[in-house]
Amino acid sequence: MLRGARREATLGRRSRPRLPLAARRALAAALLLLPVALYLRDWAFEGLVRVGSNGRLRQLRFAPPSVVLQSCPPPPEGEPAADAYAYVTSLSTPDYLPGVRALAQALRTGGAAHPLLVLIPDDLPAGLEEPLVADAAASGAADSAAPQALRVPRLRYAAGWTTAGCRYWWLNAAGHYAELEHSLTKLWVWNLTRYNALLYLDADTLPLGAAPDELFGLAAARPGGRAGPPLFAAAPDWGRHGGDAPGFNAGVFLTTPCGGLTGRLRALAADARHARDARCARRGTADQPLLQYYWGLDAIGLPMRYNALQPGLAARPRLAAAYPPRLVHFTKVKPWQAYPPAADAAPEFASWAAACDTVSCCAPPARCGAPPRYPRGPHFDAVAVAS
Fold it and tell me: What is the pTM assigned to this prediction?
């Protein structure tokens, strides 16, 4: 009886409909080739550059349609001075004030040889500059070493400048990365033509140890100085979510000013021929896809230690040990949101808290430990952009 039941079960399994052999082979081949196809798609449409074994950017053969880089007009007569270098950051929302204060203190502690300029949109409340000046005075720095606040018009991206239709469109639909809408303030960096070179640092970055003054040597060693297209050097966007991503991260970059470039970038963003290619060229939105689309393979690669993304440090400790970071970038959890850091927090959060405690940047009314707020306003293309 048991043998007969087994025979019936076997016959039942054999009687089930099965795909033809050719169809099964085709399905297996498709499953095997799917990862390769996805990689090639990323390579063709997103793969501007990737990380090489030495931690620098490695150029690929494929890139989106290039944009011709235009030469910059000569600087004003008699300017800039021979050693006119500066650090630049932006304060696009008051909730990032603790980050700017900690960044300024870390540069002072690290012996920065150049001033810090802070770009502040003119629609933010008055008085945001006062804590920065007070921090410099309390630390014993000279008045000339205090951060210089520069009020600039607010820039936002156009109504159609979203990632709708791209691989990661749901990030915007779910309200993620809302702060990126305000990062276009950094586009004003190219209007600071009185300087020879500028090192831009996002407000959520922190130098570890000595200030990275040596990066200005790239601009000093450039043949022709300010002549020709503007210099742009950035580190790879490695480890943003624990893995590698194509292209560079625009949270830290070295550049040379160029009169009129802010207006050209705005025009490029509004051009329907380039909008989809640019906004789909990177995960996310705002300034990073625009800058990657504009520079493409003309960007110079910096070692990843000059923009070590904190999620990547946590996910790849061996890589972090091989390339000790000089600048850490808190791309996900902002350190003032996690203040005070827990006992088991990553050491980068403790380093930020040490710089913050020196100037009491998380004292009330600062909103440390709370999620940031992002005010809404007119769209980018409704704002007059000076050239």
Answer: 0.76
Contact 232, 292 (CB under 8 A): no
Please count the helices (runs of H) and the strands (runs of E) in the chain.
Answer: 12, 12
Nearest Cα neighbor of 227 from 253, 257, 199, 198 is 257
Contact of 211 with 116, CB cutoff 8 Å: no
Note the CATH architecture for domain 79-382. Alpha-Beta Complex (3.90)
DSSP state of 281: S
CA atoms of 147 and 88, how far apart (whole Å):
9
Instruction: Give 334-361 pLDDT, tens digit per residue.
Output: 999 989 998 888 899 999 999 999 999 9
49/70 Cα distance (integer angstroms): 21
Max intra-chain CA distance, the chain = 104
Q: What is d(CA 264, CA 147) in angstroms, rounded to the nearest whole number?
A: 28
Amino acid identity of residue 263, one-letter, is G
Give the up-direction half-sphere exposure of residue 36: CA atoms within 13 A in the CB hemisphere: 5
Span 120-132, pLDDT tens digits? 999 999 999 999 9
Edge to edge, what strands does the sheet with 308-309 contain? 205-207, 327-329, 308-309
β-bridge partners, 234: 253, 301
Q: Cβ of 143: how many Cβ atoms within 10 Å?
A: 8
**Cα distance between residue 185 and residue 202, in whole Å:** 11
Q: What is the Cα Rg of the chain in Å?
A: 25
